[in-house]
Amino acid sequence: MFSGRHGKIYALFASLSICFSAVSPLPVKSCAHIIPEDPFVVLGSEFTAYCILNETCSSSYKQDARDIIWKIKNTKVPKQQYSVINSTVSSVTFNVTSLLDSFLTCNILAFEAFEQTLYGIYLKLGWPPDKPENVTCMVFNIEKLTCTWNPGRPTIQSTLFSLRTRWPHDENPFNCHANFSNSSCTIPAPNFQFYINTEIWVEAENVFGRAESDHLTLDPINIVKPNPPTILNLICTPELPNSIRIEWVPPLNSQVMPLKYLIRYRNSSTNEWSQVPPEDTLASKLSFTLQGLQPYTEYIISLCCMLSHGDGFWSDWSAEKSVVTNEALPVKGPDVWREILRADSDVSRRVRLKWKELERSEASGLVLGYNVTIKPKLTPSEETFKTNETHVDVTLTQDSYVVTVTAINGVGESPKSNLIIPSSTLKGLPPVKDMKALAKNNQLWVQWTPPSGSVKGYIVEWCVKSETVGCTIEWQKEPSTSQGCFLRGNIQERKLYAIKVYPLYKQGEGVALSTEAYLQQGTPIDDRTSDWRD
């Protein structure tokens, strides 16, 4: 807000002339006027107004200054504040406050019968401008110089701000004008020059007074904020599936005004940006290759820039552009498991082979299908087929089998995932120990102690236990180092879950240990063998 140099607020008075006719049927000229008619008054200080009666009217109607009544907003001013100067002049003195934003009138009790308004002035309040503070300037892409400032407290009345710039020995500074609400002003090129120290200041002026900011002296080249670069191309090549080449157009002539750049990028699945180290983009070039990215992943890219000498301001970030990196070979094979559906006879069994879809980061491309190979361990024959599904039902003998599954994308085939289906006559391998299930962080947590033998991993199975419908089995694979996991899936409250954990050995899976748990329960359930069987 603005403050006057002497802490004063001025009020501007607009005069209002009112005729006084008394009881005569004929109109007469104005019988009084108030001075000062157009003063500036300091808010909070004493102000004195004078009502001067016309001598002709005063003598004709037997009125003098003792009969004058002062009013503000039709409210009488206490007589203690009046002074009678002589028979025709009455004064009133009061402290000016915001309540005086209204008419001040002098009135008279005409013929001791009624009050008659003789004259009035309207008080308009306001402050002289404060000294403008915090003058800050910026050159936008060499096209315009804009300065902003803190204007101080509101002046109530109209205040003109002038931004002035002057070069050394220049007697005619360039002016730009703004009002109080804007608090900024822009000087277009070529009314400022680079590589020349320029004096800049702000003047504020209204009917109540004038103030001037401190003077700045600066070279406009040191306060440039360029426009953002424009990304021209994002190029991915099959030879470099983990990279993106960025090409852009600078906002300024880089031969005249060299620029440096910042590059940020992010995976479209996250809001967290990564940024290229500034030292990697110091060279004044118009392209850069991002490396070490994930294949077949959408990346969003944006740039900003500033003058290479380091003074000035970084531009805003450019408009974002996105591109999907090229495919690469899948980095791993699918997780594979089996479900024994039924035994058709003493010599055969119906088995469902199933595998998980790869995560996008694992698939490294669009998965087009799966190669499945089923090979008996004791014979050289094998069966291979391709499928687009994530499961297949097969009939196997009671012998041991090796199942291999690979995922295929547009580049090639994933590493092999193997599953041993042991012979139905194989003696059970050791189970895990101390298995428990409990609710934890609004999820269902399963934990166990590893068996004594060396394991390759674990399979965790679960399903909602029901007396009326069959159990739809869900499953997940855990690494050999795991001793617990949260069940991944739509785990619901108030549902009883039957849960199994299988250790995976080189020879096949071990005996499953089972338990049951509710998500809504927060206490562990003791180990016990359930009736859920293969």
Structural class computed from helices and strand pairing = mainly beta
Based on Cα principal axes, name the global outline.
Answer: elongated
The beta-strand count equals 40
- The end-to-end span amounts to 81 Å
Low-confidence stretches: 1-28, 525-531
Beta-strand percentage range: over 45%
Mean pLDDT: 86
Name the assembly state.
single chain
Number of helices: 2
With strands numbered from the N-terminus, the spatial order across the biggest sheet is 1-9-8-4-5
State the helicity in percent bands: under 10%
- Taking Cα atoms only, what radius of gyration do you get, to the nearest Å? 45 Å
Largest beta-sheet characterization: 5 strands, antiparallel
Write the topology of this structure.
Blueprint: E1 10-17, E2 32-35, E3 46-53, H1 55-60, E4 68-72, E5 75-76, E6 82-86, E7 89-95, E8 103-110, E9 114-126, E10 133-140, E11 144-150, E12 160-166, E13 174-179, E14 184-188, E15 198-206, E16 209-212, E17 216-218, E18 224-225, E19 230-237, E20 240-249, E21 259-267, E22 274-275, E23 287-290, E24 298-307, E25 321-324, E26 336-342, E27 348-355, H2 360-363, E28 369-376, E29 383-387, E30 391-397, E31 401-408, E32 417-421, E33 433-440, E34 443-449, E35 457-464, E36 474-478, E37 484-486, E38 496-505, E39 508-509, E40 513-518
Parallel strand pairs: 10-18
Antiparallel strand pairs: 1-9, 2-3, 3-7, 4-5, 4-8, 6-7, 8-9, 10-11, 11-14, 12-13, 12-15, 15-16, 15-17, 19-20, 20-23, 21-22, 21-24, 24-25, 26-27, 27-30, 28-29, 28-31, 31-32, 33-34, 34-37, 35-36, 35-38, 38-39, 38-40
